[in-house]
Amino acid sequence: MLNYQRYKAAPVLSFPERTWPDRTIEHAPVWCSVDLRDGNQALVTPMNVEEKIEFFLMLVKLGFKEIEVGFPAASQVEYDFVRQLVTRRLIPDDVYIQVITQCREEQIRKTFDAITGIDKVIFNIYNSISTLQRDVVFHKDQGAVKHIALRAARQVQALRWEEEFPGEFVFEYTAESFTGADMKFALDVCESVKEIWQPSEHNRMIINLPATVEQHTPNVYADMVEWMHTHLSDRDKFTLSIHPHNDRGTGVAATELALLAGAERVEGTLFGNGERTGNADILTTAYNMFAQGINPGLDLENEPEIQEVYERCTKMPVPDRYPYAGKLVFTAFSGSHQDAINKGIHMMQKENKETWEVPYLPIDPADIGRTYEPIVRINSQSGKGGVAFVLESFYGYRLPKAMHREFADIIQRISETRGEIQPAEVYEAFVENYIEAKEPIRFDSIGIIDTAFDHGERQTLVDLSFLDHGKTVKTRGLGTGPLDAAQLALEEELHVQMRIMDYSEHSLTSGSSADAVAYVQLLDQESGRIAFGVGRSSNTMKASIRGLFSAVNRLYFLGKQEKKEVKGASDGKTL
């Protein structure tokens, strides 16, 4: 049994004045990618300079205007990468480069060296204000921890003017481990740093409140953010930023609730890569907004391309069930789900809807560069709707509704043996069991001899040629049309009674050479067996006749199956 008594709940802020539960997200925040620092330091094999440059260029392409590129004072690779961005002139004019450093004098100086030549900089200093870390790691009281932040803030301010930094310079203070701190102390430190930097409405600073370790349910983080949002002074002079991690698996939820609580800016990573269980996933958060009709503010139309660069540069795979990106997230194995998706897409097409509304698909996969190919996967749990959807989506065959169950039963028997089967295998089974159902009664030819009207009803006389167990049979039939005439001729020659229960046809392809497909449902009136047949031809009449013969052979096949399964079955003359 889990020894749960070793643990205790983290302290919860009591903030009954909260207003965030009544709000909705109406627009995207400022996004800041920290993939190249926070994400990179969490990799088993960190990216080299060229990989970081490729990743950086992808972030620019996606529309990020704030990108944390590294911790230049932490290692030579980090420093060299920042300098490569400058010397190779890879930084667009409208992109702010964020650098991060601890509140240490020598690190701050080296960070200033690294940003020489950059036009737009966000200079982020951080120190931990967590109660636990003060007691266990630093052995310092609140005053000493606050002094670390203020000393660094003064140094950054002084160097900013001493170096006469020519471009735009944004101060950022990160209250590291904010969720583990006393709120009044967090407020005091942030206010004191702000007092030193003296931001204005036109030159705002950033106050960043990270959930460095996710300790609470997302609503508690939102309470903490709103408490700071309402208690910090000069609210119009700073941007309130968040930096959630994902230790409890709720990083995206915490991000969304914190945005409701007053946060304006999000630091996160693509696919949530980061230390331990990761950072807040910017892609998922942005796609969530997109699914609610909100412009996410990033160019995310080609998710597979983003994923390809990410996986190659980080050597980290995206899990199959990952939101929006996993290869199985737009896949339905359940028969009822497949049927609902099929009906939803048909309704969208029929009504020409502009707003996406399809069961089980919160967004149109095509909108983010995914294809419809993997939406419906077929296994032993799949239903008739999914099987029919595959045939129509991939191959253009619109099976009559009454035929769905019959063909689904065939596919289920196959999948029970093989497991999951691919669309090509579904089509192969369809062709084998229906279009190529040509034995033992094989259609040869049909010709119309005469058409006349008898008492107002059209009568058609046809010449029909076919093979019965390899023996050629030539006969004539008279009916209300070629299909009826052929059916009556077959009844007479085979000494059976059968009735067409359903008939439909459609064009399979477009253009003058379009093939017609005919579906014929046939009843053997003696045995009571019912089966569909399918015919295909560039000639509509021949397609219907082939469908009839296909159905006759399907009935014959079903009769043989029953005789194998039931001992003592009747030897009567049935198909």
Salient structural properties:
20% strand; three-stranded antiparallel beta sheet; eight-stranded parallel barrel; alpha/beta; 575 residues
Topology record:
Layout: E1 30-33, H1 35-39, H2 49-62, E2 66-70, H3 76-87, E3 96-102, H4 105-114, E4 120-128, H5 131-138, H6 142-162, E5 168-176, H7 183-197, E6 205-211, H8 218-231, E7 238-244, H9 251-260, E8 265-268, H10 282-291, H11 303-314, H12 335-351, H13 384-395, H14 401-418, H15 423-435, E9 441-454, E10 457-468, E11 471-479, H16 482-494, E12 498-507, E13 516-524, E14 530-537, H17 540-565
Parallel strand pairs: 1-2, 1-8, 2-3, 3-4, 4-5, 5-6, 6-7, 7-8
Antiparallel strand pairs: 9-10, 10-11, 12-13, 13-14
Word description of this protein:
The chain is an alpha/beta fold and 575 residues long. It is 40% helix and 20% strand. The chain is built from 17 helices and 14 strands. The chain has helices at residues 35-39, 49-62, 76-87, 105-114, 131-138, 142-162, 183-197, 218-231, 251-260, 282-291, 303-314, 335-351, 384-395, 401-418, 423-435, 482-494, 540-565; strands at residues 30-33, 66-70, 96-102, 120-128, 168-176, 205-211, 238-244, 265-268, 441-454, 457-468, 471-479, 498-507, 516-524, 530-537. Strands 1-2-3-4-5-6-7-8 form an eight-stranded parallel barrel, surrounded by seven helices. A three-stranded antiparallel beta sheet has the order 9-10-11. It has a three-stranded antiparallel beta sheet with strand order 12-13-14. α2 (49-62) runs antiparallel to α11, α4 runs parallel beside α6 (142-162) and α16 (482-494) runs parallel beside α17 (540-565). The longest helix has 26 residues, at 540-565. It is elongated, with a radius of gyration of 35 Å. It starts with 29 loop residues before the first strand and ends in a 10-residue tail after the last helix.
